[in-house]
């Protein structure tokens, strides 16, 4: 399967990286109907397996990412969508986006951002990226993960959201 590489300095610095879960944010309210998610690799893997994110508002179709992810389609829970549409930052705890990654037209993996702590800054987000053929292994994970933050710090004015438009 095709993999999309990050810029060389990030790969050399971090490779696959794990900055660890936030010990104070083990359960986060991410579901539009009250679903709680364990903000751990295992918890996010289990959440992705339910496909609940597919009931959330989503981008109209897969498209080329503005970052390193290749073809993507993003899904946004109500908290994330409301914050982005109203321009209310920082986003509330539980604001979550799930980006499905594609190799052509085949689902290849997921990149997930979860607001796990109130306030501003890198340490308020838990990041996750994994690929279908590598589960249950997770490529990038953790609070303020340096690989993910390498791009998402550029969206600091929108609480680390890089999505140009949220439907």
> Which spans have pLDDT < 50 for at least 5 consecutive residues?
1-15
**What is the 3D shape?**
globular
Radius of gyration, whole Å: 14 Å
Helix content: 10-25%
Order of helices and strands: HEEEHEEEHEEEEH
Q: How many structural domains in the coordinates?
A: 1
Structural class estimated from helices and strands:
alpha+beta
Mean pLDDT score = 88
Largest sheet: 8 strands, mixed
- Total of helices: 4
Strand content: 25-35%
Distance between the termini: 30 Å
- Please give the number of β-strands: 10
Short descriptors:
single chain, two-stranded antiparallel ribbon, disordered N terminus, alpha+beta, 167 residues, eight-stranded mixed beta sheet, 4 helices, 10 strands
Structure description:
- The structure is a single chain.
- This protein is an alpha+beta fold.
- The chain has one domain (8-158).
- Helix content is 20%, strand content 28%.
- It has helices at 8-14, 41-50, 78-86, 146-152, and strands at residues 17-18, 27-29, 36-38, 57-58, 63-64, 71-76, 96-103, 106-115, 125-131, 140-143.
- The strands form two sheets. Strands 1, 4, 5, 6, 7, 8, 9 and 10 form an eight-stranded mixed β-sheet that branches. The protein has a two-stranded antiparallel ribbon with strand order 2-3.
- A hairpin with a 6-residue loop joins strand 2 (27-29) and strand 3 (36-38).
- The longest helix is centred in the first third of the chain and has 10 residues, at 41-50.
- The termini are far apart.
- Mean pLDDT is 88; it is low at 1-15.
